[in-house]
Write a structure and sequence with these properties.
Elements (H helix, E strand, L loop, with lengths): L13 H18 L1 E5 H17 L5 H11 L2 H14 L8 E8 L6 E7 L22 H19 L1
Antiparallel strand pairs: 1-3, 2-3
Helix pairs in contact: 1-2, 1-4, 3-4
Amino acid sequence: MRHGKKFNHLGRTASHRKAMLSNMAASLIEHKRINTTLAKAKALRSVVEPLITKSKTDSTHSRRLAFKTLGNKYAVTELFREIAPKVGERQGGYTRIIRTGKRLGDNAEMCMIELVDFNEIYGAGEAKKTTRRSRRGGSGAAAKAAPKAAAKKEEEE
């Protein structure tokens, strides 16, 4: 019977699954974005998000817990130095899963999992300035013409 077995085993033994998710988590932390299948990305999210939450408190204990999961000292350093300060005020939801279609060979659902605050395309950038443009040209045309006129005066002298 399968009572109470709610997480995806991903067709692997427990040790293989743990090692795979550990390696994927280290890759995600180092590269900020990886491509994988949807099932693996959803399983990875349940590993990475608690790690990022633990990294908000930079103590020896939290570093050891992170190293226990990741097994990569470079990923742990990256997690505590780069990622934790950037997501300090965020309450959760540190990762984003974007579906990218089906894989050609076996038709598996593929996706890209990324850290939310490290993507310049989605919302992390600053808001654009909204300017009104008049038909007369107004101050915009005068500002553009002023440097050209100053340059011509320098050339004549």
